[in-house]
Amino acid sequence: MGTRSSILERLFLFLILLLRLPLFQARTLPSDTQALKAFKASVIPSSIPPSSCLASWNFAVDPCSLPRRTSFVCGLTCSPDSTRVTQITLDPAGYSGSLSPLISQLTQLTTLDLSDNSFSGQIPPSLSSLTTLQSLSLRSNSFSGSIPPSIINLKSLESLDLSHNSFSGSLPSAMASLAGLRRMDVSFNKLTGPLPKLLPPNLIELAMKGNSLSGSLNKFTFEKLNQLEVVELSENALAGKIEAWFFQLPSLQQVDLANNSFTGLETSRPVGGNSDLVAVNLGFNKIQGYAPANFAAYPVLSFLSLRYNSLRGRIPLEYSQSKSMRRLFLDGNFLIGKPPAGFFTGNGGAVLSGSLGDNCLQSCPANSQLCTPAQKPISVCKKVYRGRP
């Protein structure tokens, strides 16, 4: 009798759990499911490896249902109540295809990351409907066309990475309206034109390397960027003078303006003697004049490259007296005289590395790595200095 009662109790509990189960498995909003189906349908089937995230997207099962044992096992995150899709983060599986315009139906999406795949085509303008989107990464794909002006409607955006694609044209002029944007990387595309007149005011990192940007560095573009720490604008066609205000941006730490066409350089000592500037790369430009001694006054500057410009005159003695300088590249200029002895006897307790080669220096110790490559022929140096030295 007791055994029969126990069996009935277990059966009763099982039925109760079965009845209650739907309460814990709320279904995905139909428009979200429709958007996911369109997203997968826009991916070329032959580019979906069997073991990839997208291969597990089986719509015979509700996308946000739990537990996810065999379907939707990765690439997707849903809200706590399992009704809305909040993140799409694909694995780098080599997916190819386009980005479906129906992505706009995922109105609770906070992260869209398709990095390191082979997606192509244009960004659909409908993407601007994703007003809750905080992070957008299309890095290392084959997207092309212009960056749609409607991207400025993504008011919640904090991180934007469109690097390593084939985007062309110029950046939308109203980028400053993305007040929450902290990190922007559009490096290695085919962007042209000048920098925007205004950039998002809360940027921490700005990377626009490897494009065809032109024009000069405008103070108005940067003057409100009080939190900017990293500026990477190398491998463009920027020109004109780099002025002193640029290095005095209050939070600036790293600067890379190498491989451009800058011709002038103006520096001053940091305001109040304080600065967080750690690294400056101005190599491979067309900068003329003297090597600026003021860089030695930046208290934590440890890396400075002015290599392969058109600098003349002597190496500032202050460089050898800096307590923070660890790597110095002055090679490929027309510097004269003897390099400061402090370079070869230790710099604040550490030996300096870098290069002073391919200049017009005298008595640069041949046994020092700093003095390679060899100095320019005397005939070249005399021609530059019109017979002197």
Summarize the structure.
This protein has helices at residues 2-20, 30-41, 219-222, 244-247, 317-321, 378-384, and strands at 76-78, 85-89, 96-97, 111-113, 118-121, 135-137, 142-146, 159-161, 166-169, 183-185, 190-193, 205-207, 212-215, 230-232, 237-242, 254-256, 261-265, 279-281, 288-290, 303-305, 310-314, 327-329, 334-336, 353-355. With 389 residues, the protein is α/β, with parallel strands linked by helices.
Describe this structure in words.
The chain has 389 residues and is an alpha/beta fold. It has a domain at 87-355: Leucine-rich repeat, LRR (right-handed beta-alpha superhelix), CATH 3.80.10.10. The protein is 13% helix and 22% strand. It has helices at residues 2-20, 30-41, 219-222, 244-247, 317-321, 378-384, and strands at residues 76-78, 85-89, 96-97, 111-113, 118-121, 135-137, 142-146, 159-161, 166-169, 183-185, 190-193, 205-207, 212-215, 230-232, 237-242, 254-256, 261-265, 279-281, 288-290, 303-305, 310-314, 327-329, 334-336, 353-355. A 13-stranded mixed beta sheet has the order 1-2-4-6-8-10-12-14-16-18-20-22-24, with no helix packed on it. Strands 3-5-7-9-11-13-15-17 form an eight-stranded parallel beta sheet, with no helix packed on it. The protein has a three-stranded parallel beta sheet with strand order 19-21-23, with no helix packed on it. 35% of the residues are buried. The model is unreliable at 15-24 (pLDDT under 50).
